[in-house]
């Protein structure tokens, strides 16, 4: 249930790069109002319809969407392999901001390195500008793997929102 984008060498990686180097920033504009995009991240029935990279589905989820509440999803790839990730909500400002921790579950059931994910939902003329900031990765390689995963996941969200 490890990070689906990891490789065998990542466990032995040491912290590398500056704080800026180990921070991921992704922005995307969706043709939907902030309320709709925010709900896609906070309503479990909506989230499971798009969550995860392309080719994954999310048959398991639990979300206690409140400050201090826990969340957990289990995504499965095309081969059915589980990839569990979980965290705690730190800040919830409806339709504006969502902050949560993020940590993959390792194959032995332990929790891997934890990062902080900050999402802002800004109204635009065309809909909503989503800004995702995730920090601090242990390595720039970890950041880059998440960049690929988020790009694919946000493609799924864009398709879902139409």
Q: Could you characterize the architecture of this molecule?
A:
The radius of gyration is 15 Å and the shape is globular. Residues 4-14 have low confidence and may be disordered. The longest helix is centred in the last third of the chain and has 22 residues, at 140-161. By secondary structure, it is α+β, with helices and mostly antiparallel strands. The chain has helices at 34-42, 44-47, 140-161; strands at residues 24-30, 57-63, 70-76, 82-93, 97-105, 111-124, 127-135. It has a 7-stranded antiparallel sheet, with helices on one face.
A few lines on this structure:
The protein is an alpha+beta fold and 162 residues long. It has 3 helices and 7 strands, in the order E-H-H-E-E-E-E-E-E-H. A hairpin with a 5-residue loop joins strand 3 and strand 4.
Topology:
Layout: E1 24-30, H1 34-42, H2 44-47, E2 57-63, E3 70-76, E4 82-93, E5 97-105, E6 111-124, E7 127-135, H3 140-161
Antiparallel strand pairs: 1-7, 2-3, 3-4, 4-5, 5-6, 6-7
Structural class: alpha+beta
Mean pLDDT reading: 91
Output the radius of gyration: 15 Å
Counting copies of identical and different chains, the oligomeric state is single chain
Features of the shown structure:
162 residues, alpha+beta, 7-stranded antiparallel beta sheet, 22% helix, globular
